[in-house]
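Hey L., structure's done. Input below.
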Amino acid sequence: MAAPAGSETAAARTGSPGAQKPADLRFLLRDATDAAHRRLDAGFAAWDLSRRADYAAFLRVMEAAFVPLEQWLDGVDPAFLPPDWGIRRRAEALRADLIGIGGVEIPRSTAALRTPEAEAPGILYVLEGSRLGGQVLLRQVLASPDPLVRAHARFLRHGEGQRLWASFAAWLSARPVQDHDAAARGALRAFALFEAVQTAG
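Output:
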């Protein structure tokens, strides 16, 4: 099963082994987060999202990470965000799906995420990268024999037809490479949060 966060890693490996990678922030982040991506992917590998119990567990993990990260990003200086950040938010779609399939709600965290704003592009890289893995996961959900599962795929379907990953990747690639260190810390912080809630769930 493709990882629900940072899923560019697996997709990017389809190129020729010796191909030159452009020295831009997108690819630097991909390389910096490779190990974290693999760990998260392994944690989700046994889940079958066509089953209501597994799908509910997946949504609970996603919601527990997306809510605090999106809340923090809402307060970040717009200079660190793509201009269309508002249409990329998915926490509400997650909550609607979770409630719709009868999953147990997780109370929203009121604790503020304390991290430098310069880490925002890296955090966004993980959230937006989940759209790639989400395309694979959506096929599992839509193939479910459970009509309640099939009917609640707002999160995985979010942004269909809008090329949101492509436009985000272009925005990220245009950012200065010297932002790499802070952005990598942000991406790893986001992966760590997903891993923590995955393990706790």
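The chain is about 60% helix and 0% strand. Confidence is low (pLDDT under 50) at residues 9-22.

-- N.
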